[in-house]
Amino acid sequence: MKIRYLYQLLLSHTSVLIIAFLILGTLFSHYVENLVYENKVTELRTYGDKILSDLERPGPRRPLYLEEYSNLLHARNIDVITFNRQGEVSFSRGGVYPRIELSKDEWQKIEGGETVPLKKDFGRFDQAVSLVIMPRIVDGQLTGGLILISPISGSREMLSEINRYLLYIVLLSLAISLLISLFLSKLHVKRIQRIRDATSRVSSGHYDVQVPSSNFDEIGDLAEDFNEMVTKLRASKEEIDTLENRRRQFMADVSHELRTPLTTIRGVIEGIRNDMIPEEQKEKSFGLVSEETRRLIRLVNENLDYEKIRSNQVTITKVTLPLLDVLEVIKEQLDFQAEEKGNEIRISADSAATVYADYDRLIQILINITKNSIQFTSGGTITLSGSSSGTETVIEIDDTGIGMDPEEIRSIWRRFYKADLSRTNNPYGEFGIGLSIVKQLVLMHEGTIEVFSEKGKGTRFVIRLPL
Predict the structure, then answer these.
(1) Which of 36, 65, 119, 295 has its CA 20 to 30 A from that of 279?
(2) Which residue numbers delimit the HAMP domain (predicted)?
């Protein structure tokens, strides 16, 4: 069963108030009642002490004194009674009380000279009273006593008045509690409803919602946590969308890369099988099939290599290498390719310069970059230079090729970026997956790589590796 927050708030506030007022009202009433009766007994004892002191004075006017005291105290709703040793009433106003019945315990206390106060007495008189029984001692002997009686009806009326005001306070407090509960419930329900509405939007796939938050209470903390959750969900969704786009792009790029060599290989095989290729052209066709097959193998190997690097399955072993020797190896391996496009590879490095790297992976990095420089340069120069300081080695590969605009520079590290270029019918070839591998390998060496290029003015790669 669902109970609305308003009713819960009302029930809790009302319950707390009622229980608190019941406890406080009971304790207060009991305290005030005891205080009233205690004050009444104290008042009676004070009058009794005054009367007894006057009775001890010699002279014939003692009854007149009692009559005067009785009339005076009657105006205050107090009666005076005197009794002798046998308990017979010797004086009472109008003879209302002919005899006083005292208990054995009361007689014992009086005989011992003690005053007997009774806050409430319900049995000996026609009405409930408060009374004080005081002994009268003459020459060390008990001769009788004095009783002052006051009805407790007046005290009860005062207590009833106090209880009535307490009831008014309870009702007023409940009314105020009702108003406060209504206000707080509407305020909190409105805040909770905002979070519910935002949650519904998030569950529908909308992650651009925000709810007002504060550190005033737990609901404000909940709103702040909700906003933080939505921010993380939005970031996760963007990352998922990015990964999905990359996956689709990757599948499209791989399909595009594989389709061209496979189509070539299939065409050659079909031509040979159907005798559509002349005999003198078959050797060339076999060479084309062999080249396209190597291209497929290289593509697969590069992808496997890239995934191994991404998943930290590649271990590098760093050693200190002469930088000039490394650059000469690159020149020897790629001189023939450079000459085919009319390019010249130059190297420049101090013979004392060293580099701290994995030999095989460093060669792989420099060959990939240099091949790209050769690919985008015709009749120009590719310069490999390097130097080392006390903390790092700097390797630069400059070319005088076609250069790149800023958008291309941001994209060259993307996997299969060459497929994007080929789809735009770029006449200068392709970048391939090599630069993606280069980026990962440089990072594995705890180094950095930067590209500086301008359209039509060449490109410069700068690699920094720590010593």
Answers:
(1) 295
(2) 186-238
